[in-house]
Amino acid sequence: MSLVERHDTMGQDTTAWDGGMGSVGDYVALLKPRVMSLVIFTAFVGLMLAPGSVHPILGAVAILCIAIGAGASGALNMWYDADIDQIMSRTQKRPIPAGKISREEAFAFGMTLSIGSVVTLGLLVNWFAGAFLAFTIFFYVVVYTMWLKRSTPQNIVIGGAAGAFPPMIGWASVTGSVSLESFVLFLIIFMWTPPHFWALALFKSGDYRSAGVPMLPVVAGETNTRHQILIYSVLLAPIGVAPYLLGYASPVYGVASALLGAVFVALAADVWRKRDGDIARQACVRLFKFSIFYLFMLFALLLGESLVAGV
Hints:
- With 311 residues, the protein is mainly alpha-helical.
- The chain folds into two domains: 1-177, Orthogonal Bundle (Tetracycline Repressor, domain 2), CATH 1.10.357; 179-311, Four Helix Bundle (Hemerythrin (Met), subunit A), CATH 1.20.120.
- 75% of the residues lie in helices and 3% in strands.
- It contains 15 helices and two strands.
- It has helices at 24-30, 33-49, 56-80, 82-87, 103-124, 127-147, 155-159, 161-164, 166-175, 180-203, 205-211, 216-219, 222-245, 251-273, 277-310, and strands at 3-7, 13-17.
- It has a two-stranded antiparallel ribbon.
- Helix 10 packs antiparallel against helix 13.
- The chain starts with a strand and ends with a helix.
């Protein structure tokens, strides 16, 4: 397999592989399966919480299309970011920088899945949900990946909307519209994304600096990033309780979400206090890991209550 040189958008010479020997596993990796699993779960919760009903087969089709659309976004993200993925240690083993799939193959794969998922969702479920999925893919690939990621430290704040849309698409698959309730689900993920991702960025800032990506710790410094993590965490905590406050979740959810939010804020405060050496890194890792648990538990509780109510 030969190497070909290409000049990236940031004015640096980088090396990309020709590809052409990708396995099924390599193409699955292009889909970012860990991110896809979160998309599937939150979209399913949105679908289950939506008023009205949808045929189980159409519901399954909707979730499958949303999952494929998310995977397509991941593939197109890796196509465009192949230059910086090669530089960053946590992404060097992805299929394109590892030389298993070419950028052209990833682009064709991502575009095929994008079009197929949008058209299928529109034809079989409803065109509002299909159009919403198309917008989400466009937002993640063009607005976030191609524009925001390399141009502003607010990339995660604004670009995080793409990851927050799936429960609204799930809701729209049932109702053909969106509502305040579905927007609250969006808002939970939207406000969760910055502290979640910046906790990771704090101890991976060297990677972003090397790749020239203006993540907040690189541009504004670690102290400012810690301030922002704490601010977003404090704002997130009451938003996490909002489904109960708005009357579509039980007091059990209200208490649990409040406790989870309090722990989230406490861990964010720990990141804010501990700023040196390995102890600071450990605080960031704890917040990053708990943030995943936090989001999962909120949506799992909402799903559980929906299932119990439907029995």
